[in-house]
Amino acid sequence: MTVFLLLEFADTRDLQLLHVWLFLGIYLTALLGNGLIITTVACDHRLHTPMYFFLLNLTLLDLGTISTTVPKSMANSLWDTRAISHPGCAAQVFLFTFLMSAELYLLTVTAYDRYVAICKPLHYGTLLGSRACVHMAAAAWGSGFLYAVLHTANTFSLPLCQGNSVDQFFCEIPQILKLSCSDAYLREVGVLAVSVFVHFYCFVFIVLSYVQIFRTVLRIPSEQGRHKAFSMCLPHLSVVSLFISSGMFAYLKPPSISSPYLDLMLAVLYSVVPPAVNPLIYSMRNQDLRDGIRKLITWTSI
């Protein structure tokens, strides 16, 4: 099999062009928002702290995620085609799996950063020094890379005999498994089960971290201190909630309510929307980041 056929958003030319313009707007918004955050954190020395170091990594992952899926989908609609080559499909599977899993691991590390900052502030410099932060970020990226290599190699080594039509606007593992021969997919399902356990452990770690954080915050006597702590945590918690809830519903929903176009809309929700709205969430309650962005815009406009 040399070519896969992706699910198209529309079958009329006007709707195809509407899809191109809509995705182009979302993509440019993601590029602008994440690019502003990356440049601001890199240029503002006040933001060279562990929290913003992890934020920088998360924005890089968001840019990579949306760049893996959206440009190819726009090109297909623009040229009225559904085709993606076998190497291109494998590359999409690898990059999407790598970036999404690395983002989950980094969100877990960021929850630990918030936990130490609020629950163990006297030990913050010791537990989250520059070397420790680099090691944790490298572990998240490295784990995501190994995870993606394992699943991509395992998935594309399966014999495919159910056609070449992928019920999604990009290549992802569950849709490729639907094309595999009877019982051949069980090997990859076993690997996926182990992965679900690891990801569930990350989810539990994040939940337990925030339980401890909120218990500590509610014991802070001053209202200003509580407000500062909530301002530090709520953007991260919002991103985690959007990321995990949309992904869990998409992958764990009952087969009885599954349909190609429901899967399509859910995929947009967990792969396209977060990279575009995360910069807004990160900066909404973060005065230091907003000030840094304003300084950057003022400096570039002079």
Write the layout of secondary structure elements.
Blueprint: E1 3-5, H1 13-43, H2 50-78, E2 83-85, H3 86-119, H4 124-127, H5 130-156, H6 173-177, H7 186-218, H8 223-252, H9 260-271, H10 273-284, H11 287-301
Antiparallel strand pairs: 1-2
Helix pairs in contact: 1-2, 1-10, 1-11, 2-3, 2-10, 3-5, 3-7, 3-8, 5-7, 7-8, 8-9, 8-10
Model description:
- The chain is mostly helical and 302 residues long.
- 77% of the residues lie in helices and 2% in strands.
- A two-stranded antiparallel ribbon has the order 1-2.
- It is globular and about 65 Å long.
- It starts with a strand and ends with a helix.
- The mean pLDDT is 85.
Low-pLDDT residue intervals, each spanning 5 or more residues: none
Give the CA-based shape. Answer: globular
Order of helices and strands: EHHEHHHHHHHHH
Largest sheet: 2 strands, antiparallel
What is the count of DSSP helices, taking H or I runs of 4+ residues?
Answer: 11
Rg from alpha-carbon coordinates: 21 Å
Could you tell me the strand content as a percent range?
A: under 5%
**Secondary-structure content class:** mainly alpha
Distance between the amino and carboxyl termini: 55 Å
Helix-residue proportion: over 70%
